[in-house]
Amino acid sequence: MKRIILICTILTIIMGSLAAQNTNPFFQEWKTPFQVPPFEQIKNEHYMPAFVEGMKQQQSEIEAIVGNPEAPDFKNTLLAYDQSGELLRKVSAVFYGLNGANTNKEMQEIARQLSPLTTKHSDDINLNPRLFKKIRILYDQKDKLNLDADQMRLLEETYKGFVRGGANLEPVQQEKLRDLNKQISLLQLTFGQNLLSETNAFKLVIDQPKELAGLPQGAIAAAAEAGNADPATKGKWVFTLQNPSVMPFLQFSNSRMMREKIFSAYISRCNNNNDKDNKAIIEKLIPLRLEKANLMGFETWADFALDDRMAKKPANVYKLLEQVWTPALAKAKVEAADMQKYIDNEGAPFQLEAWDWRYYNEKVMKQRFDLDEETLKPYFKLENVRDGIFYVANKLYGITFTEVKNAPKYFEDVKLYECKDADGSHLGVLYLDFHPRASKRGGAWCGSYRPQTYRDGRRIAPVSTIVCNFSGPTSDKPALLTPDEAETFFHEFGHALHGLLKNVKYDGISGVPRDFVELPSQIMEHWAFEPEVLKVYAKHYITGKVIPRDLVDKIVKSGKYGQGFKTTEYVAACILDMDYHTTKDLKGLEVLKFESASMNRIGLIPQIPPRYRSTYFQHTMTGGYTAGYYSYLWAEVLDADAFQAFKETGNIFDKATATKFRKDILEKGGSKDAMEMYIDFRGHEPAIDALLETRGLK
Q1: What is the mean pLDDT of each run of 10 residues along the chain (698 residues)?
Q2: Any alpha helices (H) in 347-441, and if so which ranges?
Q3: Is 283 in the active site?
Q4: In CATH, what number is assigned to the domain containing residue 130?
Q5: Which one is catalytic: 487, 492, 518, 595?
Q6: Terminus of the chain with fewer CB atoms < 10 Å: N or C?
Q7: Range(s) of the domain holding residue 209
Q8: Do 150 and 219 share a structural domain?
Q9: CB within 8 A of 34, min separation 6: which ones?
């Protein structure tokens, strides 16, 4: 009888599992346009079963590889491993993409539950001795295997990945590594969740119209709509810590007291000694990273992280940062003096403070160049900027973008575009998601719901996404971008082009080093304000008239003013990141003391905090740019030099140069060493001179 009950129970579980699979979109073929995720059908309860099944399937695939009695070869071992985990990749791309762009409390809890599971799954593969043995056999005889260049690269990168994953460690050390990975993963996740909560928690509520003095009408209208969205603040004006709200407030509000209030809230995120405080998280996380690096045979985490990047050594990063820091700080001090002079001439009895910088920089810019953002924004309607970006892509590479109507979407204002090559062939699709919401993390990024890959000799086209936090339209105005936001759009589109144009055979050589990944994005910024491009897309949203030549001249003329501040705050954050990850003794780490000592050492002036203070430094603390925030500057050396290749032809749309950049850089992924790819394109290694010239620091 018990046996019958047990069999019935097992059958019930199996049937329930099969029924769940029949209704779970991740277990179905996606019959959507271009096989994009069926977002409207995906519910939170679908994620965990799909993750569990995905991990189960990949483990079975790994077991099939290690259990194969035939001698390991490229196909039965390396290719089989490279293509394993199809379902897991599928659900991961959707879940983690939406967890950043449109999350909720239930998804955040799922992420916390997944963290130890996915970490263990990854470690189970990386630390599988039978699998590594087969990979090592191939690696040891690689020169006899008659592999082509891509296959050799895949073998070398796969072997390196296993070694960096701990495959060469002793069993006791591997168990320690598993524990460290588990702790690090959860701390990084918690840091990001705390930051989202803190950013959403603050509201500056204004109920007196006089306190809105100086603010542009668009910012006031957006604040009024934010106020009316909540019954508790209906009829009032609400400003938040989202960049489209806080930055215009700091730039234009005449109320110094209010500027100080919102600025203090902004730089104090996750540093308020509450349940979302990140100091304790950091004080655990940074030492754990160091412990892991030491376990892997490296002196510091930075040594470990940089070992497979272009920079190679921390000393090379510091050398670059120091070359830029000295002229940038000097220029920032000149800018501070200019603003203090303006304050003094007004007869104001105070010294310039951090919450004054953007406000008085705007005043000085207006005085010196007769230029301000509110004069420019009407010429940067979001849709026009988008069309200008599409125009640049078409002129350079011959590609086109067409909106896909009635496509699945995860939020109502998200749009999908198909990208076609010059010959009309399909390259991929691109989601555009522009405006802030409580369910979206801050900043701007480019992601992927399906990366480009190959299966059975056929190219699988990517599903890419650009996510931003630009001010949305109001009841009487379309979405208008600042010049900085327009540049950000060009930047993220460069990442999207990298994904859409990629043509790499194997998943394991698809990615590029962290300090090379920003080259395709940052080179796109160079086209944003070229006069030839501005006249195409910078059109007044009411009159339709192209931006006047005198305004274009002012943009070009003023472009280098303010670079002292921009460069100093950025490099300060880079140095803070590197200092955390090059310190060899972290016993008794206290975040605020460490940060203060780091910034005092380099002489950062008090009016400029680092772009990201420790407790909201998401780039490094959540793992994306750990010991890697310098990458933007490293890549800027590359992109400034690379853009010269176009300028030297006398045509910023030179077809031969664009084709060479596409073939040597954008299509290659990580199928070749990064510096080799750059030299293939440019003919020589880059020099820092072009960067200093571009930023006006030379």
Answers
A1: 48 47 91 97 98 98 98 97 98 98 96 97 97 98 96 98 97 98 97 96 96 94 94 96 95 97 98 98 98 98 96 97 96 97 95 97 93 91 98 98 96 97 98 95 95 96 97 91 95 98 97 95 96 95 95 87 95 98 96 98 96 97 95 95 96 98 98 96 92 85
A2: 357-369, 373-376, 382-397
A3: no
A4: 1.20.1050.40
A5: 492
A6: N
A7: 202-267
A8: no
A9: 404, 418, 426, 429, 461, 463
